[in-house]
Structures are given as C-alpha cells and as structure tokens.
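User: Please predict structures.

Assistant: First:
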Amino acid sequence: MSNPIAVLLSFLIFTVIAAGCGGSTPTTPAASTLAPDRSDYPFEIAEPEVYTAKVFVMVGNEVTGHFLARSGDRSRTDINVGTPNHTSRLVAANEIVVSYGAKTYYEIPRGDGETANLSESSAEIRGLFASPERARFEKVGDEDGLTKYRVTPAQDDRSEIYIYVDAGQKMIMRQEFFTGGDAARTLTYSAEMRELSREAPDELFAIPNGFRKVNAP
C-alpha cells in the first residue's frame, strides 16, 4: 500500500482533506486512473469517456463529499463539497483551481509547450477505486446488484479490502479498507461512488460566473 489520504484526500493535491481528517491518515492504493491496465483483476474495469459521479469517503466517523466529472480530455475534481473548503480543479487546455468559499480562481502555470493532463487530485480520487498490485482476489458474492470481492494485499496479510464492482458499468463503485487481525479488525476507511451518470454538460467544466481571478499561490 502506498501513501494516502494525506495528500490524498489531498484527494488531492490540495491539503484540505488531510486537514479535515486530522492527524494520522490511512494508506490507500495508488493509481492514476479508475481503469488501470491490470491483467490480474478477475473483472474488467474501464473509466467512461463521459460521466459524472459523487464520491463519499468515510474516515472514522467523518464523511466527506466529493465530485468527479469527465468529458473526453476534460476533467473536473471537486473536494469537500458542501463545506467552506469546497474546491474544484478543472483540467482542459489549461488547469484551473476554483475556490467556492472565496469565489476566486487561478490558473496553474505551465511551461512552454506543456499541456494540462489528468490532475493529481483526479488521480488520487480515482486511486481510491483501484486495488493494490500483487493482491489476492476472492469473489464473496453479490450485494445490491454489485459483485463483492475480498482483496488481500500480498505484502500485508493483516490488511483486507472489500471492493464492489458494477460489471455492467465496468467500474468499482465501493471500497472498504480494514486493518488488524480477525479479533481486532477495524474499518479504517471506505469510499463509495454514487449517482453515476453518463452525461457531463459543458457548464461543469466552466469557471462559475462572478468568480474573481487571482494569482496562483
């Protein structure tokens, strides 16, 4: 397992989530996309070219809401939705960070000839819905239309992950991460994708009206 919800839920390059979780944070699987090129998965996953989804992350008793959108080469990642720290990262020809609390935005500078790509924050959120390398998969059964798998990281048999796959959508919709042995097994964090839609209107990738441009920090 790699590092996490520290920059993670930096979800994201921003440190907002880490602060919200406070203190120590659990480790999460590293991944750059919802659909890594992995032949060892006993199921098929593929990130849609066009979609939106809400993401809810639970660490301890705290739940934070986030949002993902993609339309071809354009992506949007929102963290801490519904709080004063609500922030968006919009990636298209350039990369924009939007603060809803301050009603401001700034553009991330890039070098000559450098183009924007999938943001680190998007990668971190998508990483919540991937499984560790060299893991053991065991199909547990079906729950609420999703196929449940037990995933045991080969390098740490004290950790256990459950993932819930929507075979029709080819997406991992939920992940639960447990630590400790059988006698003291604890749910460290969970991440769940909800309200998946295969539409992503253009306005989702636009700077909100009335927001003021500021210099990048």
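Second:
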Amino acid sequence: MSSLIEQAAQRLAQLREAGVEIPETAAVPAAGRSADVALPPVMERGEPTPQSRRVEIDFARLGQQGIVTPQSPRTATADQFRVIKRPLIANAMGRGAAPIKHGNLIMVTSAVPGEGKSFTSLNLAMS
C-alpha cells in the first residue's frame, strides 16, 4: 500500500494525463526562513470580563434517578458515599494518611461503559 503522498502524486499524474489543467499554486515559504513576511498588527485587548453561565439543577429529577441531593433523606447510599468521600476530601486538603501530589484530582474510571462512572461521580460530589 502506498503512502498518502504517493497516492496524491499518482492522482495528480492521472489528472494531467487526462488533460485536466491544474493551476500552479504559489510556493509557501518554510517556517522560519522568510524574514520579509509581514505579521498582522497586534490588537490591544482590555482586561477579560469573567462570565459565568447560570445553570438550574433539577434536584427532584436527580433524586428520582438515585442521585444524592441536598433535599434527599438520609439513606444507606448517601451514608456510603459520605464514608468514601471523607478520605478523598482529607487527601485533597493534604490531611490524608500520606499526602498525595495533586490529591484534589479524583478520577472515576472503568474499562467498560455503563458501570456507573457518572452515577458515582455525581453522588460523590453531592454527598
């Protein structure tokens, strides 16, 4: 199998043999070789204005889907997530048994879709 460049060269040769006129393009200078290339003017920008999106969370719907919410009653699931969350928070604050670099980052992962990564992440965040 030929490379993409070889395939393009073959296609170009076929087009030329068929009599198709192909316009020659201007050569593009290699990066760093052309000192006479004019750069566009730099525009001065003011200080960026932070903008936040307001998001409404439907806690009732989350509760129906089994997610721990602030209004949900105390359940075994909520308690289990709190038990899991305590050492994670301690590590994030540097108060764990062994301080971990970047302990404030938590990755919930699995090799298979549908095993509850989103469910676990949301419940850890909300518990």
